[in-house]
Every structure is written in C-alpha cells, then in structure tokens.
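User: Hey, quick favor. My workstation is busy. Could you predict this chain's structure for me?
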Amino acid sequence: MKPEGPATSQRHRTRTNVRRPPTEPSVTSSITAGQDRDSDAPRPGVPLRGLLLALGDPIVDVAAAPAGLDVQVDNVLIMDPEDRTEVRAGDLVLLIGARGGSARRLVRSIAERGATAVAVKGGLPHDREEAPARGRPRIGGDDLAPLRAEAQEAGITLLVVRPEVRWDRFQAVCQGIVDDARLLDGGDVGEADGDLFSMAQTIAQLTGGLVSIEDSASRVLAYSSGAEVDELRRLSVLGRRGPESYLALLREWGVFATLRAGEEVVRIDEHPDLGIRRRLAVGIHAGDRPLGAIWVQEGSRPLAEHAEEALLGAARTTALQMIRQRTRASAGLRLREDLLSSLLEGRIDAAALADTVEVRSDRAALVVAFALDGEEGGERADRPERELRRRRFIDLVSVHTAAYRRSSLVTELNGRVYVLLPDLVHDQGGPERSVVTLSGKIVEAARGALGSRVRAAIGSPVGRLADVPESRQEADRVLEAMRGDADREVATIDDVRSRVLIRETLARLREDPSLRDPRVDRLVEYDRGGGSELVRSLSAYLEEFGDARAAADRLHIHPNTLRYRVRRAAEISGIDLSAPGERLFTQLQLMMERDRPAK
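Assistant: No problem, here it is.
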C-alpha cells in the first residue's frame, strides 16, 4: 500500500471505482455524449464486457452475443421508431417503442449500420415505463424469441434490460461508464478495490478525524486523506501495519481485547510522549467473529459531537464490505458468475457464456444444486455473520469443484449454490457417479467446516450448454423432494423419482379444486372440529396397504382401536375403502393435506 499522498490522488482513486446506480444518472455524461456525437475525432469507448462489469448489479441480460463480449461500445443512444436517429459503428442503441415485426426490422437495420449492440426491455412492452413485474425477464418468450433469432442472424449483440429501469437513466449510466473509460485511457472500469477507501473517506467526514480501516491482524486495508497525522498513524500507513511497539502498548492497555469482545467504542487518550493523539476505535464483527477495526485519529480540531455513534454504524456497514472484499473474485470471475446465473434461469444465449468461460457449447454438461440449512428460508441472523457463512460455503464448493474440473463454475441463486460442470465425457456408468462422490465430499467438508447440514441434488446431464436450464430445474426438483428426508444428503433423480412425482402431483391437486374429492374434505373438517385422529389413522392404514397391525404399531395404539377409527372414517366420509380407485385417490388427497405448506 502506498503512503498517503495529496488529496487529489485519493479523489482520483475513489472516482475510478464509483459505480453509478440506475437511480442516480449523471447529467454531465449526457452532455459529453452530445459532444462526442458531433465530433469527427476518434471516440475510444469500452468493451461490452467492461460495461457489464461496471454496471455492477446485473440489470442487463445478454440475450444474444454472436460476436462475443469484447465488442467495443463507443456511444449510447436512445432510438424511437419515429425518430431518424443516426446510428454509427460502436453504438449501443436503446430501442424503445417498438414491438413485433417492427422491432425485428429495426434490429436488422441497426445491425446493418454497424452498431455494436441493441437493448430492449424484458417482461413488459418496450414502450411502457410502468411498475415493474416481480422477478427477472425470461428470454425465450413469444416477444423476445424472434428478436433473439434476428439479432443472432444479423450478427449484433442483443441486451435485455430489466423492466423497472428507466431508459433515460440507463442511458446516462452507460454513457457515464463509457466516458470514464475515455478519461482513464483504457483503465479497468469494472474493478472496485476502492470501496473501503471510499468508506474511510466517508467516516472521516462524519467524525471529523483521520480514519484507517484494519483487518484482524492490524494490517491497514484503507485510510482517509489528511495531513495532521501523528506518529502512530504515519508508521501504520507507511508500513501497512501498526508498528509492533505501539501494538504491544495497545494490547497492554486492553484495547484489542475490548475491540474483539463486541461493539463498544474504545477511547484512547492522547500520549504526546509516544506520538499518539486522541483516538476512537471500534471493532468490526461478523457475529462473534472479529474482522478488524476502524480507527479515528483526532486532528487539530476535536472530533464531531456524534463521532461515536457514526463510528458504530460505520463498523456494521463496513463488516459486509470487508467480507465481500475478502472473498471477492476477480472482475472476470464476477462476470462469469452473473452469466452463469442468467444461463441457469434461461435468460441468456449460451454462446455468451461459452465465449467468456471458453467451454464447448456442444458438449454435455450438468448442474449440481446445494442447499445450506437456514439459507433458503431466510433465517433471522446477524447479516455480516450470515454473509460470511454463505461466502465460506461458496468458497468451499468452488475449491472442491475446481479440483474436480478446471472449467467448473459456481454461482448463487435464491439462497442455493449451483455448480455447472461442463465438457463432460460419458464414462462407464455416466458422469453422475463421479459427481455423486464429489458432492458427498463437499457435504462432508461443509458439515465439518460450518457445522451445518447440506443437501446436494444432481441434475441429469444434458447434451448442450443451451439445455443447462433443464439440468438445473431437475436438480431443484430433487432438492425439494429431499426436504423431508433427514438421512439423504446427496441424490439424483433416480434416487427420489417417486417422491418427486408424488410431490408434483400433489402440487397439481392443490392448484385445481375440481380435482378434490369432497368426501375427503368432509373427513378432514370433521377431524379438525372434533380433535379426533381419524385422518392420521386412515393415512397410516392406507400407507400400510390395509395392514391394521402394522398401522397400529406406527401410531402406538391397539389394532382394534385402529380398525374402529378406519370404520368410523369410512362412515363419516362415505368413502368405499373396498374400491382400489377410491383408496388410491383418498391416500393422495390425505398426503396433500398432510404436506400442505404452513400459512
């Protein structure tokens, strides 16, 4: 880490890594765009890959990328079918107000004029800026499939923007990224290693002091700008770590013990003889695990009145940033994870992922889904602690799968971790056997490292990368079927096929009231009103194929009691238990009632 320099250097560092959110467009970027359009000078921009990285949160899906993701974007403009907007090579065209055949013709025309990419809205008609639909737009619907085919044939990249994003703001953000790339003269606009520096500067403004953020080993991760540094801060920044003599004093005074113990703000008095000015410090924690500390040195003026309160809030916010920075993959890997998520959800052209990951799109692949206990249901826990636990699990999965296959990819969706294993070769018995072994190792390692139960579901291999969503859907079906089986930790569809089919059949019964037998409903209501055990007893009797003794043993009652309850259930409901069809459907409907999700 370099020593502190002029304030202008720090501002440049921060500016380089700022990501503009879609809700805060840049006015200057629009002005710059207008100037560039009228200029004949070369207009270097940014590769599409860099633009996607700089956008951060994936608000855009790549629906078609026939030329890959390294095509150049030099300018971003909005195009209405009624306007005669001039389109040039290198343009990203945001197409609004066009649908159906009109949109296809415009995509073809834009491609012929050399534009790099065209963007449309997903999930809503392209000319409407209404309240967003829940979830992400799905590529492949009636509206987008023809555009996707047209773009693929015309050789132009097709982007699909989330419906809730306003076109004018999206244009401003994208143009701002292109402008930043020009200012940086080819710098990487996708990196975000200055997040902690920006946070340090923010804390300095709130507290009125000089801030440094350190990890649990007292290594300096980031610091704010300022000139009135004392000897301790100067040596810490220059050496990237607090000098040992000072650290020994802080340990002797009990400072580190207090910082590790909790969120108490520690006050360190001034010691002129030691070159130490007055400071405040607070520990950064993920649950019970200390991650580091924030130090605020007082300058020539006293610290702000609410400095301690600001410092406590900053520690909680910084915890998440430190976890993410500590485990953050390279920018390229983050993009691959975003692309994999898009492919798993069927929102992306498989060629775009193949171009980035360098895997063959015509080779077999499969998906493994992992569920860590507590992550799917949104358990209430301290956010930094939960984030750290989740990241550790993702890292654990990544390490094991990378050892199995170099080209493996890992991402997270809705609390589950998914692994794509591409380029599979069908060995004897199929690839599932070795993947089952791999999954078992991951489950065992997670149990030892995290102390949590993990379930792993393996989707069947598919012949092409484009069919990967099918393997993911099957893995999800298997994972759902494993919920009620405490003993099974790893499974394929062959292991739980009957449970999967029954579960999905019951789901259909719940969706369609016309498929219900009112006699069973009558029995259920009677049981609820009278507090009897008729439903439970009849269910056990049917599941034991009419063996009253076996059913009674399951319920820990006398066989005669079981027989009485079964007769009583038949009398109340009117169900003929001697008829095989009625027995079968009664059992299904009782299973549906038993497995009904709690409200």
